[in-house]
Amino acid sequence: MTTFLHTADWQIGKPFGRIDDPDKRARVRQERIDAVDRIGKVAAEQEASFIVVAGDLFDTPTADKATVSAACSAIGRLGRPVYAIPGNHDHGGPGGIWEQEFFRREHRELAPNLHVLLETSPLELDDAILLPCPLLRRHEPADTTAWLRTIESDLASFPGKPRIVLAHGGVRSFERRDEDGGANQIDLDRLPDEAIDYVALGDWHGTTQAGPKAWYAGTPEPDRFPRGEDNQPGHVLVVTAARGAAPDVQAVPTARLGWHEFSFDFAGDSSLDHLESTVNDLLAKRAGADLLRLDLHGSLGLAASARLDRLLEAWQARLLRFDLTNRATVAPNETELEALTARGSDPLVSRVASRLVETAAADDHEAAVARAALRELHAVCANP
To answer: pTM here?
Structure first.
């Protein structure tokens, strides 16, 4: 029996080009390095014998030297063996990162505990047998686990030790591989079930059970907005495997950054309080630790619209990335309209406001300008 950590899709060096602010972009990139230290903490707490990375340790086979050094340094701090296979992002083909001289030097000096498995042959450890299925090119038309279908007799010389498959690719809709090209597809049904005890998968970024013995670990630090409730990134898997027994698998959270996405429809000025509390609950008064995609609909009065602008300004500053689609319109409420258009002491303001109200009723650029002007006029009149 052995206990180990199943991880995948670290994708160290991911550029995050959609984050405009260079300092915030660097912060998100650094979090992928910091996640390795959190993996090490889980490994120590769970007394894991080793760590596996089921592909895509790096985001690209041409990672820059600073990224290589930072990754190797972080892996060296883990304090236990790390066994990694190449995935589609860091495939093991010619010219890839694994054969680059700079990586090899940093590997030797900073991360001697890292073992990159480039061959399809059993690797015997003290308490387990690893069966690596590396991707040697970005798009592999053949099933990389095919070599395992006839391996049962070869494993007879390793009695008692659990057999752990490492593979990277998709297992869903495998039967459609002829229709869509079938790159990097894995047919779990054709694996020798009795000969293996656990299948450690990479490629799918959410923690997902793919079969009785097969799991996707998901990325330990989320790198995209949510893709449904069933997709739960930000974990590593603590696996206890024994020969001939069902594996015990527990997901342990390792994420720090929060990726949030939701739509909100204003049903009146009072609903702005609900939006504010919802976003504040998500951010938990944190700055520099969250990314938000927000889609706004409905309408707000002049004062509420001005308040929304102040909230958006604060959220823009606090968030690492803020994707805002603001379809909410400015619609003065009756009190605000009366305060602007029925000013007996200031007939000029009343006339201007009435004209702006008429123009703002349309749905064009002039209407948008008029609504903005109404909001400014209301602010001036409310705070003379």
So the answer is: 0.87
